[in-house]
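*** Backbone structure tokens ***
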Amino acid sequence: MIVRLLLAALAAGLIAGLVMTPAQYTKIVPLILEAETYENAPATDDAAEATAAHDHSAHDHGEEASFLGFGRLGNTILANIAAGGGFALLLGGAALVLGLHFPRGREGVVRGLMLGAAAWFAVQLAPGWSLPPELPGFPYVDLMQRQVWWIATVALSAIGLYLMALRPEWVAKAVGVVLIVAPHVYGAPQPADISSDVPAFLASEFTTAALATTLFFWLLLGGLLGFFLSRVEAGDAAARAG
């Protein structure tokens, strides 16, 4: 059953990753390209202008290759497939550890959707409260600090959701709430200077689009995983009965 579960998870991740790409190109990628125009805007002093002029040709050729050679698109597809497969394996492993079952039919898909929604909350929404998705050109924050805070937030949020949703004790539910809130009380790492050439409305649009797109991805991944796992469980049940 383990092998079939892994194959089901990989199939769900592959499909979700592929479908995620056109969803990203609908809104997210255009916003990134627009933000890059502010990030690469020419400086006002003469020395910076000279440097920008020196690099301008190479930059233009890089952008052209990205579009005509499908460099950006190809990298996006590969990254989405890899992420989809990895996240699907994590979801499948979590379902196995928690002893979740996916009955064949609509109920199995609904349970998968609920699992995907919970994963979106832990991986995307909870960290995004204090550390929202950022466009190019925003002030730099130490990457290691961001990663440590993000990983801790995801882990605590996942544990908190488990305690709130699957444990009957009110004390466990209260602890779950505390775990979810704790990283935000502690605070995410922030840049010393928050000024940026990227307009605030663009950043707001990007955050909304990123959260909406990832919600679509996680629901699709969860629904597909629930569908495939329900087939796996039905096949195993038929084999035991035979």
About this structure: The CA atoms of residues 23 and 213 lie 7 Å apart. The radius of gyration is 22 Å. Residues 43-69 have pLDDT under 50 and may be disordered. Residues 200-241 form the longest helix (42 residues).
